[in-house]
Amino acid sequence: MKNRFEAIPNPSCRFEIWDNETGEPVVHHDRLLTFASAKSAARVADFLNGSRSHRRRAGAAEWRVGDRDVGWGG
Asked: Rounded to 5 degrees, what are φ and ψ at 55?
């Protein structure tokens, strides 16, 4: 089963929280949820997915974000 929320890189070299159910980025209080690091974004995505062990799984989510990274950074 795919998680509803996941962290994905965006063109501005930040990481945003994506809602797989609506097919749109997550907006909270009229602000797009974006983060400077993949690790921070992954932790928030895991929290939103209701993970009880989000600390342990944050590393796995970070790797999922890294898999989508197409050479940004440098």
From this structure: -65, -40
Report which of residues 62 and 39 the model is more confident about.
39
Taking the complete model, does pTM exceed 0.70, yes or no? no
Q: Quick one: DSSP state of residue 10?
A: -
In a domain, 58, yes or no: yes
Say if residues 7 and 65 touch (Cβ distance below 8 Å).
yes
User: Coil, helix or strand for 57?
Assistant: helix
Q: What's phi and psi for 59, nearest 5 deg?
A: -65, -40
56 domain residue, yes or no: yes
Task: Compute the distance between CA of residue 2 and CA of residue 14 in angstroms, rounded to an integer.
Answer: 22
Structure-token match 């944050």, residue found:
58
Query: If pLDDT is split at 50, 70 and 90, which confidence band does 65 have?
Result: low
Structure tokens at 49: 């997915």
Q: Is 73 inside a domain boundary? A: no
